[in-house]
């Protein structure tokens, strides 16, 4: 026990005084000076570990061999001032002990005494000694020896810190900062070479040729969705839109012909029935509506007959304050306003007619007065609308007859103003539906204007005029078709509306033709042909007047009735053909759309 305790105390004294050893003492405790207490296998193992660690024996300072005191603050400590000879004697004492203790000591003797050479501040060499006391491990387990060795290593590491031993710290010198001006003076060619390379036109061209920007690098590569959008804009939307507009045009034409043929026929049949039975019955709502529309048409034609077209023509052409295309655009705006207001007025008139047809005898006077008031409002509204359309037709005729490219200016300003006002706006599917119907009505109004121009040329033109009229009329129609295609293509593109929407609009129009949805009138094409009919009748009567032969008044009345009957039958036949064709096309289109869906 005394040996174990003495060995442990010796071990801690060795670790505490390791920092104060001189070079002579370090030489004495070198592995070569220690007694051979290990076996050959342990010796070989120690050599291999030294080779792996790159161990080198520190050189022995001659001054240290002469017995100089060790450097450090703890040099005067009595507990640390031991000699290597005492360590050697302690180890020899352990080796001379009994066989079990010798074997235990040999188990931990491979740790041994290790000297390491370290470099510290100002080139001084110090010897770091870490030792494990083998004597303290005698009679104890290998686990206790390993714990003691770990504690000893920690103490030795803490003891050999420069701060603990009073060593002088070496302050790192600050690296010299880079002087850019000095560097540029020493290497003045660098920027010159770079500038020469960058400013070389040939090098720049080669750089752009092999690694420069291209359209492919600035534009994302498309996909099938983009391709379909391009095809929709160029082909599908224009085709389906034009098909819908043409179908709507014939629907408007059918309504126009019905106003001129079916409505007068119903009125004549009603009058004939009253004269035949000689009994007056209260008319139903349909008869009252026909009477109201006929009164509006007759008064509208009578009002336009009092207007001198030549006077309006010279006023529009002679004034230089407002350009012709500006006048046309203003009249077109009033035309759309009158369309909207006229639809409301006619609905109110039909409601009054229905109320008058079903009212009781006590309320007959009130309903009759309301019907007459609504009829007067309708007359005023449609007379104004007829005058607007007539002025618009006169303006177009003035542009066509003029020889200063006024027609081209009118088409360009009107059509591109229409594109600007519609294309760059957010439009829903329902608004697009109404916009298509406005385009259909506008197409029909342009046809009525061209009939007015044709009638004016028949009456007043001199020399060959028909070829010029055909060219101008074709130019107006082609521009209108082209502008409608562009407008709807980009409306569908910007608002992400698929071309199938126009097929749905066509399906609704076919149902309107076939009367398949009498209750749902919100999606119907609402066209009121009263104002265009007044204009057409107004410009047609002078043409028929030129066909009347000179003679007595009775003879002239006879020719007027004859031409009227012939015109009526001609329009009736035309109405039958248009109606039958529309029904056939509506049936076919509805079947095709149903199969496609």
From TrEMBL:
An example of a Pfam family matching this protein is: DUF747
- Which positions, given as ranges, span the membrane? 244-274, 294-316, 376-394, 525-545, 557-582
Q: Which UniProt keywords apply?
A: Membrane, Transmembrane, Transmembrane helix
Where does this protein reside within or beyond the cell? Answer: Membrane
Presence of the UniProt keyword Transmembrane helix in the record: yes
Instruction: List, alphabetically, the GO terms of the cellular component aspect.
Output: membrane
| Location (main, coarse) | membrane
Question: Which InterPro entries does UniProt cross-reference here?
Answer: Tatp1 (IPR008010)
Specify the protein's topology with respect to the membrane: Multi-pass membrane protein
Q: Where do the record's region annotations for Disordered lie?
A: 22-77
Q: Which PANTHER family does this chain map to?
A: TRANSMEMBRANE ANTERIOR POSTERIOR TRANSFORMATION PROTEIN 1 HOMOLOG
Q: Which family does it belong to?
A: Belongs to the TAPT1 family.
Protein name (record): Protein POLLEN DEFECTIVE IN GUIDANCE 1
What is the source species?
Answer: Urochloa decumbens
């Amino acid at each position: 026990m005394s040996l174990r305790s003495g060995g442990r105390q010796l071990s801690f004294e060795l670790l505490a005084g390791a920092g104060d050893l001189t070079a002579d003492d370090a030489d004495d405790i070198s592995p070569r000076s220690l007694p051979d207490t290990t076996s050959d296998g342990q010796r070989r193992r120690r050599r291999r570990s030294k080779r792996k660690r790159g161990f080198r024996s520190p050189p022995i300072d001659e001054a240290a061999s002469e017995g100089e005191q060790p450097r450090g603050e703890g040099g005067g400590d009595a507990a640390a001032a031991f000699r290597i000879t005492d360590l050697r004697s302690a180890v020899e004492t352990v080796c001379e002990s009994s066989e079990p203790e010798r074997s235990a000591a040999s188990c931990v003797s491979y740790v041994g005494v290790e000297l390491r050479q370290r470099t510290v501040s100002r080139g001084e060499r110090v010897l770091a000694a870490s030792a494990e006391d083998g004597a303290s491990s005698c009679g104890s387990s290998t686990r206790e020896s390993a714990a003691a060795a770990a504690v000893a290593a920690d103490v030795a590491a803490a003891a050999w810190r420069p701060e603990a031993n009073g060593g002088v710290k070496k302050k790192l010198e600050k690296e010299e900062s880079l002087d850019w001006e000095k560097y540029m003076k020493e290497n003045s060619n660098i920027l010159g070479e770079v500038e020469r390379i960058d400013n070389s036109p040939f090098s720049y061209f080669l750089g752009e040729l092999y690694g420069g920007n291209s359209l492919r690098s600035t534009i994302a590569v498309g996909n099938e969705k983009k391709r379909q959008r391009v095809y929709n804009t160029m082909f599908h939307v224009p085709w389906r839109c034009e098909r819908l507009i043409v179908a709507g045009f014939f629907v408007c034409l059918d309504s126009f012909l019905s106003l001129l043929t079916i409505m007068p026929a119903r009125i004549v049949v009603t009058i004939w029935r009253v004269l035949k039975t000689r009994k007056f019955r209260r008319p139903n709502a349909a008869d009252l509506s026909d009477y109201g529309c006929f009164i509006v048409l007759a008064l509208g034609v009578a009002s336009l007959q009092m207007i001198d077209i030549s006077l309006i023509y010279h006023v529009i052409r002679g004034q230089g304050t407002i350009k012709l295309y500006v006048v046309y655009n203003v009249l077109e705006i009033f035309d759309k306003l009158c369309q909207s207001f006229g639809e409301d007025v006619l609905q109110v008139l039909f409601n009054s007619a229905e109320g008058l047809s079903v009212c009781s005898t006590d309320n007959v006077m009130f309903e009759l007065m309301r019907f007459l008031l609504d009829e007067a409002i309708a007359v005023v509204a449609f007379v104004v609308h007829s005058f607007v359309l007539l002025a618009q037709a006169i303006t177009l005729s003035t542009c066509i007859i003029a020889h200063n490219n006024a027609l081209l200016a009118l088409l360009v300003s009107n059509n591109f103003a229409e594109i600007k006002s519609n294309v760059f706006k957010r439009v829903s599917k329902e608004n697009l539906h109404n916009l298509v119907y406005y385009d259909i009505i506008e197409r029909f109004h342009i046809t009525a204007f061209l009939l007015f121009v044709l009638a004016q040329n028949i009456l007043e033109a001199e020399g060959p005029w028909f070829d010029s009229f055909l060219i101008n009329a074709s130019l107006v129609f082609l521009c209108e078709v082209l502008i409608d295609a562009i407008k709807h293509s980009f409306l569908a593109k910007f608002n992400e509306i698929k071309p199938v929407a126009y097929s749905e609009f066509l399906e609704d129009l076919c149902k309107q033709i076939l009367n398949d949805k009498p209750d749902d009138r919100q999606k119907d094409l609402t066209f009121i042909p009263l104002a265009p009919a007044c204009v057409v009748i107004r410009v047609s009567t002078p043409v028929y007047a030129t066909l009347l032969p000179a003679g007595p008044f009775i003879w002239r009345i006879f020719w007027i009735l004859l031409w009227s009957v012939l015109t009526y039958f001609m329009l009736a036949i035309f109405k039958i053909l248009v109606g039958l064709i529309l029904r056939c096309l509506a049936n076919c289109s509805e079947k095709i759309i149903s199969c496609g869906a």
